[in-house]
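Hi there, hope your week has been kind to you so far. For a while now I've been wondering how a particular protein folds. I'm sending you its amino acid sequence along with the C-alpha cells. Could you read through the record and tell me how the C-alpha cells relate to the sequence? Take your time with it, there's no hurry, and the full record follows here.
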Amino acid sequence: MPFLAGETLTAAGLMGATERLQSTVNVVAGTTTSTTYTSTLTGTTAATLAFVAPPSGRIRVTIFAALDNSAANYTVASYSISGAAGGVAANDDKQIYANGTDEGSRARPTIVTGLTPNAAGLITMEFKVSGGTGTINHQQISVEYLP
C-alpha cells in the first residue's frame, strides 16, 4: 500500500507500508462472572493483538464478539492497550454488550489517539457482567493504522 500524502518516510514506515490492517480471532467460547473488566475467562483466553503504533500515534480498533448471559443481565466486552505504545484502560466508552440469554453478535470501532509513535503495544479484550454468567464467543480484534 502506498504512503499517504504528508506521511514521513522512515525505516519503520517502510517495514509496515504493506500492512495497514491487522486482525486476530479466537473462536473458543469462554465465560465470566466478574462485575469489573477482566481478561480472565473460564474455558479460553481473551483475544490479544500485538501492534506497533504508526508515526501518527493514531489507530482504529474494532472489537467483535458474540455475547450472552445466563439470566436477564448484561455481558459486556471492551479492550485495553498496554506496552510502550501507551496505556488505555478498558472502559464503557468503547464497549459492546448484549442483554439476556439471546446471544447477540456485536462490533464497534473506536479511534485511539496519543499513542507513542513506532512503539509496541498489546490490545487485549476484557469482559464483565452485570450479574449471572456471561458467555463470550468469536472474539475478534482488528487494528487499522491511521495517518
Remarks:
- The first strand starts at residue 21 and ends at 26.
- The mean pLDDT is 90.
- The two ends are 13 Å apart (CA to CA).
- The chain is about 5% helix and 50% strand.
